[in-house]
């Protein structure tokens, strides 16, 4: 800025006015300053200006796995809403690693972002408290909590698990498996709890098949485990903790010669676009993926604007079941 001012033969204050309050500067002077800016190739450091003013325009978005279409859609919703309000987003992918999530949040602290939208891997109260102490507003997404420490946006996963297994029991299934993991994930525990409630209410048996990670490989591993079961112990239906596991399971069952849904019915969770496009279109519990992101961003912007008057909200969406060929027919 000093070099620009010297080249244009004006004060540093005049250069600042050209950038921030151009109407205060005479046209001839403004033209001289703009020419000096072009000659020096100077690009104003907008982030530094915002930090001096005490309010940046960057928001950190941290989620469990950006390669999962569920989180990709959630991020699109959040980014779109933030952009409408003049904020830019920086994205952190925890890649299902709690230590990496911690490093991402530490980076957001160092960048002094204005706020954070966090899809936490596990319980992260200490990390959220650290952000709050630093004056960084935080909204938790894909999470329901009873505390009023921060805004939260999530889906009733217990209800989601319940409607998935109710659908299967209504189709006549009495030996049903739940494929999901790790159990440290609140979402997995809640979906299994809803599945257990529905199975018990119908007098059905729920078998647990643990998968190490909610990806295609986890589903294929579950298929191998099912294929090795004696026929009389094999489930006639499987409820998967997400669609990636369900698609992997479908691929694995077909590979070992089992038919879907004739031999085994499948219901997934999230209702990503790939679910309807699978070799056998998958039934799935639908989450409002983009709405989760837009709602989280809306709550965060409201907190920016309202300051001390802001009151935290806990927004809970109700999931719905999309029934397709993988579970549509009844068993004898």
Automatic annotation (TrEMBL):
Work out whether the entry's keyword set contains Transmembrane.
Answer: no
Q: Please report the organism this UniProt entry assigns to the protein.
A: Tessaracoccus defluvii
Instruction: Provide the alphabetized UniProt keywords.
Output: DNA-binding, Transcription, Transcription regulation
Superkingdom per UniProt: Bacteria
HTH lacI-type domain residues: 1-53
Extract the InterPro entries matched here: HTH_LacI, LacI/GalR-like_sensor, Lambda_DNA-bd_dom_sf, Peripla_BP_I
Protein's UniProt name: LacI family DNA-binding transcriptional regulator
What are the protein's GO molecular function terms?
DNA-binding transcription factor activity; transcription cis-regulatory region binding
Is Transcription regulation included in the keywords of this UniProt record? yes
The cross-references to SMART domains, in alphabetical order and at most eight, read: HTH_LACI (SM00354)
């Amino acid at each position: 800025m000093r070099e620009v001012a010297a080249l244009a033969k004006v004060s540093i204050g005049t250069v600042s006015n050209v950038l921030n309050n151009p109407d205060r500067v005479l046209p001839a002077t403004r033209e001289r300053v703009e020419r000096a800016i072009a000659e020096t190739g100077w690009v104003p450091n907008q982030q530094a200006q915002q930090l001096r003013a005490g309010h940046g325009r960057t928001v950190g978005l941290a989620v469990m796995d950006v390669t999962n279409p569920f989180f990709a859609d959630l991020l699109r919703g959040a980014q779109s809403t933030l952009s409408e309000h003049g904020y830019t987003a920086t994205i952190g992918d925890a890649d299902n690693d709690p230590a990496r999530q911690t490093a991402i949040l530490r980076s957001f602290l160092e960048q002094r972002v204005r706020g954070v939208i966090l899809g936490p891997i596990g319980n992260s109260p200490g990390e959220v408290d650290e952000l709050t102490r630093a004056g960084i507003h935080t909204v938790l997404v894909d999470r329901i909590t009873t505390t009023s420490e921060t805004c939260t946006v999530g889906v009733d996963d217990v209800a989601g698990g319940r409607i998935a297994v109710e659908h299967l029991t209504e189709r006549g299934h009495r030996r049903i498996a739940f494929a999901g993991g790790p159990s440290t994930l609140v979402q997995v525990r809640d979906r299994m709890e809803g599945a257990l409630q529905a199975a018990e209410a119908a007098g059905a048996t729920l078998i647990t098949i643990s998968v190490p990670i909610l990806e295609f490989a986890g589903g294929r591993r579950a298929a191998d485990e099912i294929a090795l079961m004696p026929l009389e112990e094999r489930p006639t239906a499987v409820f998967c903790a997400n669609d990636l596991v369900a698609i992997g399971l479908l691929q694995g069952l077909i590979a070992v010669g089992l038919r879907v849904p004739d031999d085994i019915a499948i219901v997934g969770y999230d209702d990503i676009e790939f679910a309807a496009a699978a070799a056998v279109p998958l039934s799935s519990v639908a989450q409002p993926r983009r709405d989760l992101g837009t709602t989280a961003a809306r709550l965060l912007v409201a907190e920016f604007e309202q300051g001390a008057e802001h009151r935290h909200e806990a927004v809970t969406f109700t999931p719905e079941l999309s029934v397709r060929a993988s579970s549509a027919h009844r068993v004898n």
